[in-house]
Structures are given as structure tokens and as C-alpha cells.
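**Folding the chain**
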Amino acid sequence: MGILQVTLFGGIRITKNNWTTEIKLPREIQLLLAFLLIHRHRTRPREVVAGLFWGELGQDKAHASLSNALWKLKKVPEPAGIPVGTYLVNTHPGEVGFNRESSYWLDVEVFEEQTCHLLASPPDQADKTNIHELEKF
């Protein structure tokens, strides 16, 4: 299956197969994936996500647009042979989200973890290697 790698800093870039295969998605679908990843700690009601992305279309068209976008998004990281729900979660009560239990790498998550580690360290013990790693972002 491999790891889904997503870079959000400096523009959205989605790859798999150890960075060798870049996944091309329409901008709207990239932004939806980025939203789900940034809010990866919990699922969001479908009507909220539909309203954020397609609210100007009215409720029915916004829901249809979200369903279509999720279908397109699932086909990329979850092609034939990859179980549905590996990366994207659709809960029964009508919520969507990113499956944090899946195999993925996200630059924003690495940055957050390193920042929390640095902030938890006493100022005189800040690891210069970790600071240098943060500067790469």
C-alpha cells in the first residue's frame, strides 16, 4: 500500500510510493484534502464541510458537490485493492474526516510535533538540531 505523503507548506503536494509518484488532483480536491488533514483530530459534519466549500451553491448542490469531491478524492489514495476508509472516513451520522490510523506523512504534523517538543524543553536545553529542522519548513 505504501505511505501517503502530503506537503502543505509551500503549496500542496501529494505523493505516494516513497515520494516517487506524484498524485495530481484538481485544486478544489487538494484544498478539501488539506482541510481534512489540518482538522485530522476529529471528523466534521458533512453539512459544515459542504457549506465551507460550496455554500454559495445552496444546500442540495453543496452536498452533491461534497459527495462528488469525496468520491474523486477516495479514488486517488484508495484505488482498487486498497480498502475503502483507509485514508478518508465517512461516519454513519454524516461526518467526514481523515483517518489518522492510516499510513501517512504530513509536513504540518511533523512541524507541530517538533514545535511542541521545543516549547516543552527548557530554553537553555533547546536542541539546535531540532531548531535547524524547524527552519527547513
About this structure: The chain is about 45% helix and 15% strand. The first helix runs from residue 27 to 38. The beta strands are 4-7, 13-16, 21-22, 44-45, 88-90, 95-98, 104-106.
